[in-house]
Amino acid sequence: MNGEALTSPARNADFGDDALPPLIYAYGMSLRKLRILRAFVAPIQVSYLRGITSLPSKSILLVWGSKNLTARGDVSVVRVEDGFIRSIGLGADLIWPISWVFDQRGMYYDARQESDLEHLLQNTQFDGDLLYRARQLRKKIVAHGLSKYNLSAANWNRPPSIEKVVLVVGQVESDASIQCGSANIKTNLDLLKAVRLANPKAYIVYKSHPDVVAGLRASDQHREQLNHYYDEGIEHVSIQSVLDNVDAVYVITSLTGFEALIRHIPVFCYGHPFYAGWGLTSDLAPPIPRRSRVLTLDELVAASLILYPRYMSLSSRKPLSVEQALDELITLRNQQLPTPWWRKLLRTVLQQFGKNR
């Protein structure tokens, strides 16, 4: 496969189908993810494998995330993950995604090696039309309060008469995004300690990861100690309302940092998320020499939301542009349909499973 086949500017619309064979292979995915995958790459056929030793020469093999595997040198491995604007609801709740990314070089959250996204950010020459599109996209995201999961929640208000309010964003500590994207700080407790040390007089707001709040992933290993280092813990509140009321955001690698940048909020990174190292964040981890370029916010948005992901309609299962995907999510969110009984039951089952994840 051509090295650029999965990174062309148009691939969110056509996925470079002219460069792909009629049959590709998938390994190590659940049956549910396999179903979603087939929808994303249609009309290309996907064959599911239980082992990879018998792959034909020059095959394309799709795997989920940063799953470890050793493939022959003549096999092209493409890693698949959720996009940055995903759904109305949590992925851990088995809500279908409107965007996935397909990365041939690595994975955007694995800072140990270059990913397709990092390659785009480091090398793309962004023209005026693309940057205008990115700017309009960014304005639309802010105007409609869009985020990765677009959860319905109450608003949060800034405490009165507080000079400085900072948000610390918790993550699922077992996630590969921390294990592969941070060299030093790998727990929410260590993150809070570092932020309190750097901001002894600030009002620190701590927001747990929504998967943890929902009981779909394991709680922090030092959860009982966290409240010693923040002033207020918030859970069932709108991330948009929080970002509207803080002076800075501190993360390890959380996507909330990217969402804060889009809203022109200062972001401090203790790890190496995909949006760090380009002159837009205050980086508190050792630099990555590969990331040697200074980018504008619109260049970051263009690569991350236009060039990198693929979007698919949740209703028609047809390819979408990112603008069409935003419109569909806005429509779905505004409908505010009641949660069906079967999804409530499924949440209960997933919560039991999530305690061990």
Automatic annotation (TrEMBL):
Gene Ontology biological-process annotations: polysaccharide biosynthetic process; polysaccharide transport
Assigned keywords, A-Z: Transferase
One Pfam family matching this protein: Capsule_synth
InterPro entries given in the database record: Capsule_polysaccharide_synth
Single GO MF descriptor: transferase activity
Protein's recorded name: Beta-3-deoxy-D-manno-oct-2-ulosonic acid transferase
